[in-house]
TrEMBL record:
Pfam families, per the entry: EGF_integrin, I-EGF_1, Integrin_beta, PSI_integrin
Organism: Dicentrarchus labrax (European seabass)
Keyword Membrane: yes
Top-level division of the source organism's lineage: Eukaryota
Full protein name: Integrin beta
Signal sequence interval, chain numbering: none
C-alpha cells in the first residue's frame, strides 16, 4: 500500500492542522501521544515513509492510507468504581435503617484514564438526606465573666435534644471546658487549659448533670485558650467519640483568643504539634507548647470535617467573624449576656451551615487542572468559583457538580499521582478519583527484536518504526552508517539543488533528511522532506504570530475565517469602522483592514467623525432654521432648495424645549440671528445625515451673549 501525497488543509477552529503534531519533532509513538490530545500515530511500516509523517491527526493519517486498525489514538475514559446510590429514607423507616450506611454523596470512587491535554468529566451528586446523624460537642469558656451563663447552659441539654428531634433521630452531645491564664480563689476551679468533660452521648440528662458540676474561674488576662481547646477537640477523636457523621463544634465565650507566639509571654517557644495530648481528660501540653496558629487550626478542622459555631458576645463578635473567611465551615452568633439565646444560635447556625454545600479537593500535582460546574436547585449552570457551591439547600434537595480534570504532559511513573480527593466541606463523605495518565501506546508491548522488516534483522521493530542496531541507519536500517554520508546521499537531501543539506535544519541519513529541533527553543522543530517547514516563523502583527488570529503552517499564516492578510492582521468584520449612527466610517470613508480611510482630509478619528476645523452641528443648520422659522437670511427660493431636509416642530417659549425627551442624538443649541436676537432650538439627527428634526422656540431673546451646546 502506497501512502498518498501530503496535502495541507485548514479546518474550522475547533479542528487542527495536519502539521500541528509533526511540528513537535516527535520520534516515537509515546512522543506523539504527548504532543497533544488530537495527535495519533500510525503503527504501519511503509518503505520510504518519514518517521515524522507517522504522527498526525487521525483524519490526515487515514487520508494518507494508514489502515484503521493500525491507528494508535487512545482516548480518555471515566470508570465508576464505587457508585452506591444516595440514601432516601422517610422518617417512618428510621427503625429499619438503624444499622445501614447513610449516603449523601455519589459516586464514591472514580477511575480516570487521562490523555494529556484532554479533559475528562464526571458528575458528583449531593443530597441533604433526611434524618442524617449529628454529633455536637459543646466547648464552654469557664472564665469568671461567664458565671451567669452556667444556669442557661444547664438547660441546654434537654432543650437541644428536643429541638433536634425535628431534624434527626440520631443526635449526640458532648461537653468540654476551657480556661485562660487564671487565678484560683475559693471556690474557683483549679487551673487547666482544656478539660474534656463528657464524651458524645444521646443522654441529654447526663449533659445537664455534667454542666451543673462545673465551676468558673478567675482570669488574669482577657484572651482565652480557645485555639488550644479547638485543636484538642478536633484531634482527640477517640476520647470524644466523633463519628463519620455531621460534626458540630460549639464554642461559647465572651473574650478573644491567644494564638501562636503568645506563649512567649510565659517563656514557651515550642510550636504546637497539632496532636491530641490528654491525660485523665486534661490537656497536658499547655505549659510546654505554644498556642496553635489560626491557619493550623483551620487546616485540622478541614481534615476532621468539623463545622464550627461560635456563640460569642457582642464585644468580640467582630473578632470571630474574621475567622469565617479562614475556617472551612464556620458560623458566628451573638450571645446574650447570660446565654439565654444559646439554643436559638445553635439551631440557626446549623441550618445556615447545612443549607450550603461547597466542594473542595486535595492538592493537585503540578500541571493538572480541575474545574467545577454546579447545577443547583434552579438547574442553571454556574462556573469558576461559583461552580463549587450551591446554597439554600433544604432536606431532600439534590444538587450536582460536573467535575472536569485535565492532565499535563506525561510524567515518569514515580511522579504519577495516585489519587485526588473531592468532598463537600464539613462532611466526611468523599469521592476518591484515581488518575491514570495515558502515556504508552498499545503497540509498545509488541516489540520484535531483530525484525526481518528492518533490513533482515538489523533493527528492532516497535510501533511501525525500526530502532537500528549500532552501525546501521535509515528508516529500515538499510544503510551502513560509515557509508551514509556519501555525496550521492547528500544530493538527495538538497531541495532544488540548494547548497545546504536538509535546508540547514537536519542531516542526511541514507538519502533522507532527519530534521533537528531548534537549538534555542527545543519545542520548535523542523519537518518536511527537506526540513524546510517550521510552524514558528510566520509574519507577526502587534507582536503575535499571525496576529493571534490564525495558525502558522510551514511558514505561512492560515487565518481564521474572519481574518485575512499575511499576518492575519485584517479583520473582515466592519464592526470597528461603524460610527455612532451605525454608518461605515460615518459615510465619509472606506473601511480597510478594520480601519477607516477618510475621503475628506478634514475628518479624522477611527470612524471619520472628528473634524476640528468644521463648524458645529448647531452652526451648520443655523441659516436654514433662521430662514424657515423666521424668514431671515436666505431668500425663499434658496431656503426651499437648501433646507428641504429639515423637519420642523415650532413651540412658543424656549422653556418648552426642556420637555423634549433627551437622547444621544439630541443637540441643544443657542444661535444669534441677523437681528442680534438669541434663537433657541433642538436638533435631533437621524442615522442618515439628510434627515434632521428640529424643535424651534419662536420666542427670541435679546442678544447679551450666545453659546452653542452640541
Amino acid at each position: 500500500m502506497q501512502w498518498k501525497n501530503r496535502t495541507f488543509c485548514w479546518f474550522l477552529p475547533t479542528q487542527h492542522s495536519d502539521h500541528e503534531c509533526q511540528s513537535q519533532g516527535v520520534r516515537s509513538c509515546r512522543e506523539c501521544l504527548a504532543a497533544g490530545p488530537h495527535c495519533a500515530w500510525c503503527n504501519f511500516l511503509e518503505v520510504g515513509q518519514h518517521i515524522w509523517e507517522r504522527c498526525d491527526t487521525p483524519r490526515a493519517l487515514l487520508r494518507r492510507g494508514c489502515p484503521f486498525d493500525r491507528l494508535e489514538d487512545p482516548r480518555g475514559s471515566t470508570v465508576l468504581l464505587k457508585n452506591r446510590k444516595i440514601t432516601f429514607h422517610p422518617k417512618e423507616q428510621r427503625r429499619q435503617r438503624q444499622h445501614k450506611q447513610v449516603t449523601q454523596l455519589q459516586p464514591q470512587s472514580v477511575l480516570l484514564h487521562l490523555r494529556p491535554g484532554e479533559p475528562q468529566s464526571f458528575e458528583v451528586k449531593f443530597r441533604r438526606v433526611e434524618d442524617y446523624p449529628i454529633d455536637l460537642y459543646y466547648l464552654m469558656d469557664l472564665s469568671f465573666s461567664m458565671e451567669d451563663d452556667l444556669s442557661n447552659v444547664k438547660k441546654l441539654g434537654a432543650d437541644l435534644m428536643e429541638e433536634m428531634r425535628n431534624t434527626t433521630s440520631d443526635f449526640r452531645m458532648g461537653l468540654s471546658t476551657v480556661m485562660p491564664y487564671i487565678s484560683t480563689p475559693w471556690p474557683c476551679a483549679p487551673p487547666f487549659t482544656y478539660h474534656h468533660v463528657l464524651s458524645l452521648t444521646a443522654n441529654g440528662s447526663l449533659f445537664t448533670e455534667q454542666v451543673g458540676r462545673q465551676r468558673i474561674s478567675g482570669n488574669l488576662d482577657s484572651p482565652e485558650g480557645g485555639l488550644d481547646a479547638l485543636m484538642q477537640a478536633a484531634t482527640c477523636e477517640e476520647q470524644i467519640g466523633w463519628r463519620n457523621v455531621t460534626r458540630l463544634l460549639v464554642f461559647s465565650t465572651d473574650a478573644g483568643f491567644h494564638f501562636a507566639g503568645d506563649g512567649k509571654l510565659g517563656g514557651i517557644v515550642l510550636p504546637n504539634d497539632g496532636k491530641c495530648h490528654l491525660h485523665k481528660n486534661v490537656y497536658t501540653r499547655g505549659n510546654s507548647q505554644d498556642y496553635p496558629s489560626v491557619a493550623h487550626v483551620a487546616e485540622i478542622l478541614r481534615q476532621k470535617n468539623i463545622q464550627i459555631i461560635f456563640a460569642v458576645t457582642e464585644e468580640v463578635t467582630h473578632l470571630y467573624e474574621g475567622l469565617t473567611s479562614i475556617f472551612p465551615k464556620c458560623a458566628v452568633g451573638m450571645l446574650s449576656n447570660n446565654s439565654h439565646n444559646i439554643l436559638q444560635i445553635i439551631v440557626e447556625a446549623y441550618n445556615a451551615l447545612t443549607s450550603e454545600v461547597a466542594m473542595e479537593n486535595s492538592k493537585l500535582p503540578p500541571g493538572y487542572h480541575i474545574s467545577y460546574t454546579s447545577h443547583c436547585k434552579d438547574r442553571k449552570p454556574r462556573h469558576s468559583e461559583q461552580g463549587r457551591k450551591c446554597s439554600n439547600i433544604s432536606v431532600g434537595d439534590e444538587v450536582s457538580f460536573n467535575v472536569s480534570i485535565t492532565a499535563p504532559l506525561c510524567m515518569t511513573a514515580s511522579q504519577r499521582p495516585p489519587s485526588v480527593i473531592i468532598k463537600p466541606q464539613g462532611y466526611s463523605e468523599e469521592v476518591e478519583v484515581l488518575l491514570s495518565p495515558i502515556c504508552e501506546c498499545s503497540c509498545q508491548k509488541d516489540v520484535v527484536p531483530r525484525s526481518p522488516s528492518c533490513s533482515h534483522g538489523n533493527g528492532t521493530l516497535e510501533c511501525g518504526t525500526c530502532r537500528c542496531k549500532e552501525g546501521r541507519v535509515g528508516t529500515l536500517c538499510e544503510c551502513n552508517q560509515a557509508e551514509s554520508g556519501k555525496a550521492i546521499d547528500s544530493y538527495l537531501c538538497r531541495r532544488d539543488n540548494a547548497t545546504e543539506v536538509c535546508s540547514g535544519h537536519g542531516e542526511c541519513v541514507c538519502g533522507k533528511c532527519v530534521c533537528h529541533k531548534s537549538s534555542k527553543k527545543p519545542n520548535h522543530a523542523y519537518y518536511g522532506q527537506f526540513c524546510e517547514c517550521t510552524d514558528f516563523s510566520c509574519d507577526q502583527y502587534r507582536g503575535l504570530q499571525c496576529g493571534g488570529h490564525g495558525r502558522c503552517v510551514c511558514g505561512v499564516c492560515i487565518c481564521l475565517p474572519e481574518f485575512r492578510g499575511r499576518a492575519c492582521e485584517c479583520p473582515l468584520s466592519l464592526g470597528s469602522c461603524l460610527s455612532q449612527d451605525e454608518q461605515i466610517c460615518a459615510g465619509r470613508g472606506d473601511c480597510h483592514c478594520g480601519t477607516c480611510m477618510c475621503h475628506d482630509n478634514r475628518f479624522q478619528g477611527p470612524t471619520c467623525e472628528l473634524c476640528p476645523s468644521c463648524p458645529g452641528v448647531c452652526t451648520l443648520h443655523r441659516e436654514c432654521i433662521l430662514c424657515r422659522a423666521f424668514s431671515l437670511g436666505l431668500n425663499p427660493k434658496e431656503c426651499e432648495m437648501r433646507c428641504i431636509h429639515l423637519n420642523f416642530t415650532l413651540v412658543g417659549q424656549a422653556g418648552v424645549l426642556a420637555t423634549v425627551p433627551p437622547s444621544p442624538s439630541l443637540h441643544s443649541c443657542v444661535e444669534v440671528d441677523t437681528e442680534g436676537c438669541r434663537v433657541h432650538f433642538l436638533l435631533r439627527t437621524r442615522q442618515k445625515e439628510d434627515s434632521v428634526h428640529v424643535h424651534v422656540a419662536l420666542e427670541r431673546g435679546r442678544r447679551t451673549r450666545f453659546s452653542v451646546f452640541s
